[in-house]
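User: Design a sequence. Structure:
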């Protein structure tokens, strides 16, 4: 018997990033790559004078940063404007959604995984990639975001 389509693994090349208010990314943005956040727990250790080993329990949670990479065009500068807002003390936080789609060509796309990133703000902006006259690569810019919390909805 043939395997059902919903049992196929999710391919990692069909995704897009949306910003809740549309003020930072302006549109549903297409990106070359997105590093997704990971959640980790520190370990709190305690030892008293009566035991040989330490007692361990979950410590403080931390969430890694997220990096968005995108091809450079001449008419888009929202990454730079966003980090400039943070530097100059203007409103700089945004909530983002990362939608991962299945491999069907349906319209609208079928969202099979959704991550919501809360209170994201830029901490590093690389406006253009390192330049090299010996390659024909597409120039890719990067924006690294610190996030305070994320949720996996699907």
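Assistant: Done.
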């Amino acid at each position: 018997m043939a395997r059902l389509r919903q049992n196929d693994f999710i391919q990692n090349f069909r995704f897009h990033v949306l910003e809740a208010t549309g003020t930072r990314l302006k549109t549903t943005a297409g990106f070359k790559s997105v590093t997704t956040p990971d959640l980790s727990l520190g370990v709190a250790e305690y030892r008293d004078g009566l035991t040989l080993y330490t007692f361990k329990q979950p410590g403080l949670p931390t969430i890694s940063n997220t990096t968005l990479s995108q091809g450079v065009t001449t008419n888009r500068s929202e990454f730079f404007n966003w980090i400039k807002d943070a530097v100059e003390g203007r409103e700089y936080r945004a909530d983002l959604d990362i939608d991962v789609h299945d491999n069907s060509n349906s319209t609208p796309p079928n969202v099979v995984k959704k991550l919501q990133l809360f209170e994201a703000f830029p901490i590093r902006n690389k406006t253009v990639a390192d330049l090299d006259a010996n390659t024909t690569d597409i120039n890719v810019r990067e924006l690294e975001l610190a996030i305070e919390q994320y949720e996996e909805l699907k």
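The mean pLDDT is 83. The chain has one domain: 5-152.
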